[in-house]
Design goal:
Chain lengths: 318, 252
């Protein structure tokens, strides 16, 4: 009885702290569901950064100029760094990176479905940087104010690097659009393939979003899926038009009254198909991560053994 | 693409070493044993690609006309590449990559130090930047030699195997040819033969500390400086040059 009372008291105190925009820190009391919800969201975000290395990393060896090669290497390296910040943030919630990776490998934990699409041409590297990183920025900027301190601080660090990612992608697209016809076709084709998956990155409509209401109340999420998606569309449409690209949506139209673009219906069946494992590259993405992790096992073991020996040595010598 | 001017040939040679090494390292992106190594390996890869660009840009300046850094990377075939064979060998496992790196870093540090004193001020300036990187690279690859050599039985064995395979490619680093002789005489090029004892000291000390042994293999495989490569370089170039070959003459 008494325990129950104090739990209720804790939850109230917790909520009023969140309402007052105070950050929740690792040592603070938090509802178990808040913790689990955060672990789910942060680890999904971390895995997305890491799996996201693959479609872009595929083009490091084939980048068309040395400058593009160096920029792409730096960009993909940043994404690995983002993964690291986020795993570290998740670990403050009492879970290890090994456990998180295990959940990724068993399918218990997801990553952004957009990375299950292939990067077929060089223009895809432009489209990914421009659209996928734009979408990530829109989402991550809103998460700089998330209620959990370590997550919010990770977002601040990450957002600083993202604008370079977006710019390099857009710059690739712009260069293609100023080039030969085959380059403009390549750019348009990439936009055609990446546009809708980018819109899907924001998740289901607010009415259908499973975790949204509670996440908003706890201020884990700060803005709704549909709000964020709208902001992305408004930005991206103008950027597309500025360089002569056509957004592949016949229903796209400026709505004077709303002050926003109206856009066509998203194909949620396609979304479900890819999320549930039947996108073009789901199996390859996961298999790639699993095999790199397994092939690296002996290295991690060697490191641990070496460090254990170093700790033991002084005693033996003495 | 035939290069005649000795200085240009020398600069391109140094660019080739750096580009091919950087390319091989970059293949680890998303494949490293853990995330920190994805980042660290790509850091080193970026240093090498950056170094290649500086050398190629200088070579392009020397040649003038339409030539750019990209001409050297993307518009030459295998026979025109003059990198060390060591740099082009496929990445192998993590032990192979790190052993290659260590053997090369132990050479690259004294090399860049010596190149800082080149009579050619451009080369000296590039070397000044490269030297700082090489110092860090060597510290890093040496640490890995210790961890892998003195880690588990498996890591020790993998490391020793890698060294045994790589050893015959190390002679080439210290080889002198007519091009070098001429440029050494004018104080432009580094006399690589003179770096050998320092290199061997570093390698011996580290391998000893790592409980590894110096391979017994004698003699060395060479040819890279004359464009006689392993089969692997052709495949590397086919991949690296794909865009420029499939869609020539465009801006990207
Ligand atoms: Fe990121
Ligand atoms: Fe990014």
């Amino acid at each position: 009885m008494k325990d129950n009372m104090s739990l209720v008291g804790n939850e109230e105190k917790f909520q009023s702290k969140v309402d007052a925009e105070e950050k929740v820190e690792p040592k603070d009391w938090m509802p178990e569901k808040y913790r689990q919800n955060l672990i789910r969201q942060i680890s999904q975000h971390a895995h997305s950064e890491v799996i996201g290395e693959q479609p872009e990393g595929n083009w490091i060896s084939r980048a068309p100029t040395l400058e593009r090669k160096a920029i792409l290497m730096a960009k993909v390296q940043d994404e690995a760094g983002h993964g690291l910040y986020l795993y570290a943030a998740a670990e403050t919630l009492g879970i290890t990176r090994d456990e998180l990776i295990d959940r990724l490998h068993t399918g218990a934990s997801k990553y952004a479905s957009i990375f299950n699409y292939p990067s077929l041409t060089w223009a895809d590297i432009g489209a990914i940087g421009w659209l996928v990183d734009s979408a990530a920025i829109v989402n991550q900027v809103s998460l700089q104010n998330t209620s959990y301190g370590p997550y919010a601080r990770a977002m601040v660090k990450i957002c600083k690097e993202e604008s370079f990612h977006q710019r390099q992608g857009y710059n690739i697209m712009m260069t293609l659009m100023q080039g030969a016809e085959l380059q403009r076709d390549m750019a348009q084709d990439a936009l055609n393939r990446w546009w809708w998956p980018s819109l899907m990155m924001f998740g289901p409509h607010d009415a259908e979003s499973a975790h949204s209401a509670q996440s908003m109340k706890w201020k884990i999420k700060r803005r709704s899926n549909d709000e964020l998606r709208q902001q992305f569309v408004d930005q991206a449409v103008q950027q597309a038009q500025a360089i002569g690209l056509v957004v592949p949506d016949p229903d796209l139209v400026w709505n004077e009254q709303r002050g926003h673009y109206d856009f066509g219906a998203i194909d949620w069946e396609e979304f479900q198909r890819v999320v549930s494992g039947n996108g073009p590259c789901n199996r390859q993405r996961l298999a790639h991560h699993v095999s790199a992790h397994q092939e690296g096992a002996w290295v991690r073991e060697a490191m641990a053994a070496y460090e254990a020996k170093r700790r033991a040595v002084p005693a033996e010598v003495a | 693409m035939k290069l005649h001017d000795p200085l240009t040939r020398y600069v391109v040679r140094l660019g080739d070493d750096a580009l091919i090494m950087g390319h091989r390292l970059s293949e680890w992106m998303s494949r490293a044993p853990f995330l920190e190594e994805d980042i660290a390996l790509s850091n080193v890869a970026l240093d090498f690609v950056g170094r290649a660009r500086l050398f190629y840009q200088y070579a392009a300046d020397l040649m003038g006309g339409e030539v750019t850094e990209n001409t050297f990377a993307y518009q030459r075939d295998v026979r025109d590449f003059t990198n060390l064979l060591l740099c082009e060998l496929p990445r192998g496992d993590f032990a192979f990559t790190l052993c290659r790196q260590f053997l090369y870093d132990a050479y690259s540090l004294p090399f860049t130090q010596a190149l800082c004193k080149s009579a050619d001020s451009q080369l000296a300036a590039i070397a000044a930047k490269a030297e700082k990187e090489s110092r860090y690279h060597l510290r890093r690859s040496r640490d890995w030699m210790l961890r892998l050599g003195d880690g588990t039985a498996e890591s020790h064995e993998r490391c020793q195997n890698a060294l045994d395979q790589l050893w015959i490619y190390t002679d080439e680093m210290f080889e002198c040819d007519a091009l070098l002789d001429g440029l050494i005489a004018t104080g432009v090029a580094v006399n690589t033969a003179s770096l050998r004892s320092e290199w061997l000291d570093t390698v011996t000390e580290t391998l000893h500390a790592a409980t590894l042994v110096i391979p017994e293999a004698q003699g060395g495989v060479t040819g890279g400086r004359e464009g006689i490569h392993t089969d692997d370089l052709g495949f590397l170039l086919a991949e690296m040059q794909f865009m420029q070959r499939a869609y020539p003459g465009l801006q990207w």
